[in-house]
Amino acid sequence: MNIRISEASKRLGVHPSTLRNLEKRGTINVQRDWAGWRIFSEEELMNIQSILFNRRGGSDGTTMA
Question: Which residues are CB-contacts of 22 (< 8 A; sequence separation ≥ 6)?
């Protein structure tokens, strides 16, 4: 199933502009539908999640007590 950028950003916990910037930099390769809308596959979401995790220094944003 393919989803648009607004849903992808919600699922990844980032702003849509973050995804656009990753695409602009060539970090991710985003497919587009017939109307030119960005669409993300489940596989691409997992790839982006991994990229974001690594950019955060391997932290998922939680802290250990």
Answer: 28, 48, 51
Here the CATH number for the domain that contains residue 19 is 1.10.1660.10
What's the pTM value of the predicted model, to 2 decimals? 0.80
Tokens encoding 55: 């950019």
- 25 is a domain residue: yes
| DSSP assigned state of 50 | H
Quickly state the pLDDT bin for 30 (edges 50, 70, 90): very high
Other beta carbons less than 10 A from residue 21's beta carbon: 13
Contact predicate 3/39, CB 8 Å: yes
